[in-house]
Each structure stands twice: as C-alpha cells, then as structure tokens.
Amino acid sequence: MRAVHAHRCTNVGALVNPGALMIAGWSLRDAPAAYDPPWIEVHPTNRWARERFRHESVLAPLASGVVVGLGAFGHRLAARALVRLSLAVAGRS
Question: Is 82 within 8 Å of 12 (Cβ atoms)?
C-alpha cells in the first residue's frame, strides 16, 4: 500500500489482494482507510468455501467492492469495475 499511497494523486484507484492479512491485518487496514480513490479487494479463491476463520475481512468494509473466487478472471473483472468506479467519481460515467 505504500506505493499506492505514494501515487494516490496520479492513480485512479487500486486492486488489493491482501491474502491472509485480510483476517487480522489491522496495520494494513490503516493504509486503505486513508486512501481516497476507489479500491477493490480481490481474492482468487472463494474464501467462503474454506475454513470459517477466512470468512471475514477487516478490509472489506472499507473497499469500494470485493471480488472473490474467480481466479485470475477476478482480477480482470475487478480492473473493469475499478475503471467504471473511477469514471463515476470523475463524473464521466
């Protein structure tokens, strides 16, 4: 997230795959909480098909959206959604 913050004035948003940090990554949570552009949390695997402790994310409530369980296609889908969200924020939807 440091790199994302360093360029927050020149980028339109971010895709974040927090991996296991979604479960208890409270230190990571502070970074996107202070990030103004839209961002999307992305997980290649379906976390609800896995152990119960993976069902909650400390980051998801801050995200503009969450894409889960679609493998590499999920990243492409999230990128398309991010473009739409960014255009909407810029008033060009």
Answer: yes
Question: CB-based burial of residue 27 (10 Å sphere; 0-12 exposed, 13-18 middle, 19+ buried)?
Answer: exposed
pLDDT at 93: 58
pTM metric for this prediction = 0.83
Active site residue 75: no
Q: Is the pLDDT of residue 6 over 90?
A: no
Query: What pLDDT is recorded for position 9?
Result: 76
- For residue 15, give the DSSP letter: E
Bridging pattern class, strands 65-68 and 14-16: unpaired
Q: Annotated catalytic residue: which of 5, 7, 43, 75?
A: 43
Amino acid 85: pLDDT: 92
Q: Are 23 and 53 in contact (CB under 8 A)?
A: yes
In order, the DSSP letters of 30-74 are HHHHT--S-EEEEESS-GGGS-GGGS--SSGGGSSEEEES-HHHH
